[in-house]
Amino acid sequence: MPAISESSTRLSVLDPDVALMLSVRDGSPEAFAQLMELHQDRLLGVLVNWSGNRQEAEDLAQEVFLRVYQTRQRYRAKARFNTWLYTIASNLLRNHRRNSRLRHAASLPASESGPFGAVRSLYQGAPVEMAPADRVQREEVAETVRLAVAGLQERQRLAVLLNKFEDMSYLQIAEVMGMTEKGVKSLLARARSNLRDTLGPLLDRSAKLKDHES
Protein backbone atom coordinates (compact mmCIF):
# COMPACT_ATOMS: atom_id res chain seq x y z
CA MET A 1 0.00 0.00 0.00
CA PRO A 2 1.52 3.38 -1.01
CA ALA A 3 2.41 5.70 1.84
CA ILE A 4 0.16 8.72 2.32
CA SER A 5 2.17 11.92 2.01
CA GLU A 6 1.62 15.09 4.01
CA SER A 7 0.28 16.86 0.91
CA SER A 8 -2.16 13.99 0.31
CA THR A 9 -3.35 14.27 3.89
CA ARG A 10 -3.95 18.02 3.50
CA LEU A 11 -5.83 17.54 0.23
CA SER A 12 -7.96 14.75 1.68
CA VAL A 13 -9.07 17.14 4.43
CA LEU A 14 -9.81 19.97 1.97
CA ASP A 15 -11.44 17.70 -0.60
CA PRO A 16 -13.35 14.65 0.74
CA ASP A 17 -13.31 13.16 -2.77
CA VAL A 18 -9.53 12.90 -2.53
CA ALA A 19 -9.97 10.85 0.64
CA LEU A 20 -12.40 8.60 -1.23
CA MET A 21 -9.96 8.16 -4.11
CA LEU A 22 -7.19 7.26 -1.69
CA SER A 23 -9.53 4.56 -0.34
CA VAL A 24 -10.13 3.38 -3.91
CA ARG A 25 -6.37 3.19 -4.38
CA ASP A 26 -6.18 1.06 -1.25
CA GLY A 27 -8.76 -1.39 -2.57
CA SER A 28 -12.19 -0.14 -1.48
CA PRO A 29 -14.91 -0.90 -4.09
CA GLU A 30 -17.42 0.94 -1.90
CA ALA A 31 -15.39 4.15 -2.20
CA PHE A 32 -15.26 3.78 -5.98
CA ALA A 33 -19.03 3.31 -6.14
CA GLN A 34 -19.47 6.42 -4.01
CA LEU A 35 -17.20 8.49 -6.26
CA MET A 36 -19.15 7.37 -9.32
CA GLU A 37 -22.42 8.28 -7.63
CA LEU A 38 -21.08 11.73 -6.75
CA HIS A 39 -19.57 12.59 -10.14
CA GLN A 40 -21.20 10.57 -12.91
CA ASP A 41 -24.15 12.91 -13.55
CA ARG A 42 -22.05 16.09 -13.76
CA LEU A 43 -19.39 14.39 -15.86
CA LEU A 44 -22.01 13.01 -18.21
CA GLY A 45 -23.62 16.44 -18.44
CA VAL A 46 -20.35 18.05 -19.50
CA LEU A 47 -19.69 15.32 -22.05
CA VAL A 48 -23.22 15.47 -23.48
CA ASN A 49 -22.93 19.21 -23.91
CA TRP A 50 -19.46 18.84 -25.42
CA SER A 51 -20.35 16.17 -27.98
CA GLY A 52 -24.04 16.82 -28.61
CA ASN A 53 -24.58 13.05 -28.69
CA ARG A 54 -25.84 11.27 -25.58
CA GLN A 55 -24.70 7.79 -26.59
CA GLU A 56 -21.24 9.04 -27.43
CA ALA A 57 -21.11 10.93 -24.11
CA GLU A 58 -22.19 7.85 -22.16
CA ASP A 59 -19.44 5.80 -23.82
CA LEU A 60 -16.86 8.46 -22.98
CA ALA A 61 -18.07 8.77 -19.37
CA GLN A 62 -17.79 5.02 -18.94
CA GLU A 63 -14.26 5.13 -20.36
CA VAL A 64 -13.30 7.93 -17.95
CA PHE A 65 -14.35 5.93 -14.89
CA LEU A 66 -12.72 2.82 -16.32
CA ARG A 67 -9.45 4.78 -16.56
CA VAL A 68 -9.90 6.00 -12.98
CA TYR A 69 -10.24 2.42 -11.78
CA GLN A 70 -7.46 1.03 -13.96
CA THR A 71 -4.97 3.66 -12.76
CA ARG A 72 -6.10 3.65 -9.11
CA GLN A 73 -2.89 2.11 -7.77
CA ARG A 74 -0.83 4.88 -9.37
CA TYR A 75 -3.02 7.66 -7.98
CA ARG A 76 -1.21 10.48 -6.21
CA ALA A 77 -3.19 13.28 -4.60
CA LYS A 78 -1.59 16.32 -6.23
CA ALA A 79 -4.78 18.26 -7.02
CA ARG A 80 -8.48 18.29 -6.22
CA PHE A 81 -10.20 15.11 -7.37
CA ASN A 82 -12.41 16.79 -9.97
CA THR A 83 -9.34 18.43 -11.53
CA TRP A 84 -7.76 15.00 -11.93
CA LEU A 85 -11.02 13.46 -13.18
CA TYR A 86 -11.53 16.10 -15.85
CA THR A 87 -7.89 15.92 -16.90
CA ILE A 88 -8.56 12.27 -17.75
CA ALA A 89 -11.78 13.28 -19.52
CA SER A 90 -10.04 16.05 -21.48
CA ASN A 91 -7.31 13.66 -22.66
CA LEU A 92 -9.93 11.14 -23.77
CA LEU A 93 -11.85 13.87 -25.60
CA ARG A 94 -8.72 14.86 -27.51
CA ASN A 95 -7.96 11.24 -28.39
CA HIS A 96 -11.54 10.64 -29.43
CA ARG A 97 -11.56 13.71 -31.66
CA ARG A 98 -8.25 12.75 -33.23
CA ASN A 99 -9.18 9.10 -33.78
CA SER A 100 -12.77 9.43 -34.92
CA ARG A 101 -12.58 12.87 -36.54
CA LEU A 102 -16.26 13.21 -35.81
CA ARG A 103 -17.77 16.65 -35.76
CA HIS A 104 -20.04 17.34 -32.81
CA ALA A 105 -23.77 17.64 -33.49
CA ALA A 106 -25.13 21.05 -34.38
CA SER A 107 -27.55 20.99 -31.45
CA LEU A 108 -27.60 19.67 -27.93
CA PRO A 109 -30.35 17.48 -26.48
CA ALA A 110 -32.90 19.29 -24.37
CA SER A 111 -33.89 18.16 -20.90
CA GLU A 112 -36.37 19.38 -18.34
CA SER A 113 -33.94 18.84 -15.48
CA GLY A 114 -30.66 17.25 -14.50
CA PRO A 115 -27.25 17.48 -16.13
CA PHE A 116 -28.52 17.01 -19.67
CA GLY A 117 -30.16 20.39 -19.61
CA ALA A 118 -27.41 22.00 -17.60
CA VAL A 119 -26.60 24.68 -20.17
CA ARG A 120 -29.66 26.45 -18.80
CA SER A 121 -27.49 27.41 -15.84
CA LEU A 122 -25.74 29.88 -18.15
CA TYR A 123 -28.73 32.15 -17.83
CA GLN A 124 -31.21 30.56 -15.44
CA GLY A 125 -31.23 30.56 -11.66
CA ALA A 126 -33.18 28.32 -9.34
CA PRO A 127 -36.41 26.83 -10.76
CA VAL A 128 -39.51 28.90 -10.05
CA GLU A 129 -43.20 28.39 -10.63
CA MET A 130 -44.33 30.19 -13.77
CA ALA A 131 -47.23 30.48 -16.17
CA PRO A 132 -47.26 28.08 -19.16
CA ALA A 133 -46.53 30.93 -21.59
CA ASP A 134 -43.53 32.01 -19.51
CA ARG A 135 -42.32 28.42 -19.34
CA VAL A 136 -42.47 28.08 -23.12
CA GLN A 137 -40.57 31.34 -23.52
CA ARG A 138 -37.90 30.20 -21.09
CA GLU A 139 -37.53 26.88 -22.87
CA GLU A 140 -37.07 28.74 -26.15
CA VAL A 141 -34.36 30.85 -24.54
CA ALA A 142 -32.73 27.68 -23.16
CA GLU A 143 -32.64 26.12 -26.62
CA THR A 144 -31.13 29.28 -28.09
CA VAL A 145 -28.38 29.24 -25.45
CA ARG A 146 -27.73 25.52 -26.00
CA LEU A 147 -27.28 26.08 -29.70
CA ALA A 148 -24.96 29.03 -29.08
CA VAL A 149 -22.75 26.98 -26.74
CA ALA A 150 -22.77 24.08 -29.21
CA GLY A 151 -21.49 26.46 -31.86
CA LEU A 152 -18.41 27.45 -29.88
CA GLN A 153 -14.99 26.17 -30.92
CA GLU A 154 -14.33 22.94 -29.00
CA ARG A 155 -11.74 24.28 -26.56
CA GLN A 156 -13.88 27.33 -25.80
CA ARG A 157 -16.88 25.09 -25.19
CA LEU A 158 -14.98 22.78 -22.85
CA ALA A 159 -13.61 25.73 -20.86
CA VAL A 160 -17.11 27.19 -20.48
CA LEU A 161 -18.54 23.83 -19.38
CA LEU A 162 -15.83 23.31 -16.77
CA ASN A 163 -16.17 26.89 -15.52
CA LYS A 164 -19.95 26.80 -15.24
CA PHE A 165 -20.78 23.18 -14.40
CA GLU A 166 -17.80 22.24 -12.26
CA ASP A 167 -17.22 25.71 -10.79
CA MET A 168 -13.55 25.39 -11.72
CA SER A 169 -11.12 28.26 -11.31
CA TYR A 170 -8.86 29.48 -14.11
CA LEU A 171 -5.99 27.51 -12.56
CA GLN A 172 -7.97 24.26 -12.39
CA ILE A 173 -9.14 24.61 -15.99
CA ALA A 174 -5.55 25.32 -17.03
CA GLU A 175 -4.41 22.08 -15.35
CA VAL A 176 -7.19 20.08 -17.02
CA MET A 177 -6.65 21.51 -20.50
CA GLY A 178 -2.85 21.74 -20.42
CA MET A 179 -2.82 25.52 -20.75
CA THR A 180 -1.55 28.50 -18.82
CA GLU A 181 -3.89 30.37 -16.51
CA LYS A 182 -3.54 33.41 -18.78
CA GLY A 183 -4.48 31.26 -21.75
CA VAL A 184 -7.66 30.11 -20.01
CA LYS A 185 -8.66 33.70 -19.25
CA SER A 186 -8.19 34.56 -22.91
CA LEU A 187 -10.11 31.47 -24.03
CA LEU A 188 -13.09 32.27 -21.80
CA ALA A 189 -13.02 35.91 -22.89
CA ARG A 190 -13.25 34.82 -26.53
CA ALA A 191 -16.06 32.41 -25.65
CA ARG A 192 -18.02 35.21 -23.95
CA SER A 193 -17.44 37.46 -26.94
CA ASN A 194 -18.63 34.78 -29.36
CA LEU A 195 -21.72 34.09 -27.26
CA ARG A 196 -22.54 37.77 -27.12
CA ASP A 197 -22.15 38.03 -30.89
CA THR A 198 -24.53 35.09 -31.30
CA LEU A 199 -27.09 35.90 -28.65
CA GLY A 200 -26.91 39.69 -28.58
CA PRO A 201 -29.38 41.36 -26.20
CA LEU A 202 -30.62 37.96 -24.97
CA LEU A 203 -27.22 37.11 -23.54
CA ASP A 204 -26.73 40.56 -22.03
CA ARG A 205 -30.09 40.33 -20.34
CA SER A 206 -30.32 36.70 -19.31
CA ALA A 207 -27.07 34.82 -19.79
CA LYS A 208 -24.20 36.77 -18.28
CA LEU A 209 -21.41 34.31 -17.66
CA LYS A 210 -19.78 34.43 -14.26
CA ASP A 211 -16.09 33.53 -14.09
CA HIS A 212 -14.76 31.88 -10.95
CA GLU A 213 -11.32 33.23 -10.28
CA SER A 214 -10.67 31.43 -7.04
Tally of domains:
2
Rounded to an integer in angstroms, the radius of gyration calculated over CA atoms is: 18 Å
Order of helices and strands: HHHHHHHHHH
Question: Count of DSSP helices?
Answer: 10
Brief write-up:
The chain has ten helices and no strands.
Structural features, described:
With 214 residues, this protein is mainly α. It has two domains: 1-102, Rna Polymerase Sigma Factor, Chain: A, CATH 1.10.1740; 124-214, Orthogonal Bundle (Arc Repressor Mutant, subunit A). Helices cover 67% and strands 0% of the residues. It has ten helices and no strands. Helix 1 crosses helix 2 and helix 2 packs across helix 3 (29-51). The longest helix is centred in the N-terminal third of the chain and has 23 residues, at 29-51. The protein starts with 5 loop residues before the first helix and ends in an 8-residue tail after the last helix.
